[in-house]
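Good morning C.,

I know you're traveling, so I'll keep this short. The sequence:
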Amino acid sequence: MTHAAYSAQAPSAVVMVRPHHFTVNTETAADNRFQLSTDWSDELASRAFDEITLAAETLESHGVTVHLFEDSGRETPDSVFPNNWFSTHAGGHIAIYPMKVPSRRRERRSDVIEMLKQNYRVQDVIDYSGLEPDGIFLEGTGAMVLDHIDRVAYAARSDRTDPIALERFCTHFNFEPMVFDARDGDGVSIYHTNVLMCVATGFAVIGTGMITDARRRNEVVARLQRSGRDIVHLSNAQIDSFAGNAIELQGKESRILALSTTALAALGDDQRATIEADARIIALDIPTIERAGGSVRCTLAGIHLTPRN
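The tokens, ready to paste straight into the viewer:
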């Protein structure tokens, strides 16, 4: 059974960025194992443009408000992933984040923040980007998976998730940090927490096997279960197919779980059944975008603000 009831976890509006010259970011390839290096062409850029266009239309057709911004430049190869440079929070708060590589710092856009101020109630904007010269990074809701109901910030340690910045964010925004080490099957650290897990209202999908410390792994699972959520355990292969890179949104008739067609194909029947007991699954087809090392969750910056009208 799906529910239309309001949930603080599931925003009903998102920001998306449509790239006109999409390509893989060579600067981020060093620690993003999900990236596929390939020869980029105008045809692939055109495909990426079409994938974001269709994804936005699909979400709108299910009742999600999509604020679609254009990126016609060539200096911001990862701009299609806006969830890393800003986040929004109930009570009218916006955070702007310090990014690890220079090209990603150029993704920050004043027009996005101005749109939010015009259309939603915004009390303050806290800008952490001044930490960048000190080598301190916290890449938004890529680095942290936020439980807006239970006020927990789940975070896998990495160069993109600095404990100093995380502590500062959690103090400002009233979250409890829950930090852990996570590695893939080859022993490489997970670069962004949101490829590993997704917290929805009634369930959480998580690659528990990648959390290296057994005791910490049990603590993370127990914390999620204590909030009344069903746990969908993902295998390493399912994580590689972006099954953890999903986001719960509020549609017009029910809450939905937005993920990619790649991710959906990787899920088993029992896993789908657990998810569908609480949310409707909406699969978005973005295989070209996924070559850049991110999937549906990365392309959507959720808006947890109150509309002005």
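Safe travels,
E.
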